[in-house]
């Protein structure tokens, strides 16, 4: 309600006064007709002068609706233009780092929020769920009321820190170093979980000294490597015409097994054949290839990170860091509640990678109450390809530019060292000036090289205040949407409660107006654009949706649909299982090994 009726809410399209500086706060109200006409002109001018890729559409995680949020039809507009669409937001880094250890992919690394009810200790690391994810905090609060210890690691005493049992104040940017120092401390004091590392991780896997790659069937021995190369060539010939995604999946399906050093045989053996794998050591294969276990290499790398230096960098007393490290090793089940505070740095994935290593070394994965929480995601996604690109005007989807590269791309007009003119930016569900690192870089390097910036938002945030044109969007209660949000196993319909206030419009309506102004009437037909039934049919047009019985009629009747893969049968993925049955989170370490420790 505060957002809807905010006295500072943007009520009508606003244009920066010609000749004024960006960020000076000099604005003039204009009509929607003027706003769309001006936006279309600048987009057309850039596309004509520099090519369609010079127009960049960017979204982050401000709203997860399919019609009016991050998945909206700006992707279609980008596709029919052949413009640039950022591939992922900056928060990709957190999952990338964690996946380096868990192997869960970039988004599926967290247990369901209620898994903390099985935790003996919850560490809220670099996030503030009391304010930013109250649907998560309620589970942590209930766990705390039942005896779970809650520790908050944060540079500031946030609302979550106030409500935790303990607040550990850390200097910004050094969380990863502290986690690595804790891991080194555990190894030096023999507090690591060796049984877990031997049985559930890749610690025993061999790494070649010459190539730094795992010793596996694709590169050793020579005859096996030759067979693998020939198989890849045959697969490429067979599947190349079906596209990059199909080809990549086909190549990935080719068996490529790993080797360990079997102490009983004193020789390298495939993991499945070894009887006594060595966890530590350096060895030489019969044909002279020098190999070392991954765990040995990890220990060597960790040895440079000390508690003393971590204390200097973080400002946390050495004794407290040691105590926290011991807690990770001795607590029955530790859950690390994490979102994206740790990854908003250059190479921010290293922070979350370090925390994941700490959990792996202590065996705090793959069992009740252990692992990560905070970014539990769905396994179901509607038919977005049809939703976005089911139009005869579609040209291409240029979505290979990570959002983290935007500042450098606009600042230098280059990408990966090659010329990449970037002139117009369209931002929605995003606030780059606040959420990206290096705001001064945006002010000093990006804005001077940007011809025009269009921002869709409800408030004059940092991005909007530095834009050239601000388009006021309707709030969540003023428009209809389909949502499959974080941290719950449901698909919901967000029904319109009131008409849009002032002169605000839904994102979908704005996109339709702009698409038609750019000349793409076939892709943005006025007569059917606001027909929600049409969009639901496209979103539910794939085989998965149809097999599950997802329809607009069902959604309107039930309001909330439980995603089948997340039915409440297991803690971690869902609720408490019957006593005596094992529950698992996203890291099913009983059936798979961690990728890297």
Short description:
The chain is an alpha/beta fold and 597 residues long.
Give a verbal description of the structure.
With 597 residues, this protein is an alpha/beta fold. It is 35% helix and 14% strand. The strands form 6 sheets. The chain has an 8-stranded mixed beta sheet. The longest helix is centred in the first third of the chain and has 19 residues, at 32-50. The model is unreliable at 565-592 (pLDDT under 50).
Topology:
Layout: E1 14-16, E2 27-29, H1 32-50, E3 55-59, H2 74-81, E4 84-86, H3 92-102, E5 121-125, H4 129-132, H5 134-145, E6 149-153, H6 159-163, E7 166-168, H7 175-188, H8 194-200, E8 206-208, H9 222-239, H10 244-252, E9 259-262, E10 267-270, E11 282-284, E12 290-293, H11 294-302, H12 307-314, H13 318-330, E13 334-337, H14 349-361, E14 371-373, H15 384-389, E15 398-401, H16 406-412, E16 414-415, E17 418-419, E18 424-428, H17 432-435, H18 439-446, E19 452-457, H19 462-465, E20 469-472, E21 481-483, E22 490-494, H20 507-517, H21 532-539, H22 543-548, H23 552-558, E23 560-562
Parallel strand pairs: 3-4, 3-18, 4-15, 5-6, 5-13, 6-7, 13-14, 18-19, 19-20
Antiparallel strand pairs: 1-2, 1-20, 8-12, 9-10, 11-12, 16-17, 21-22, 22-23
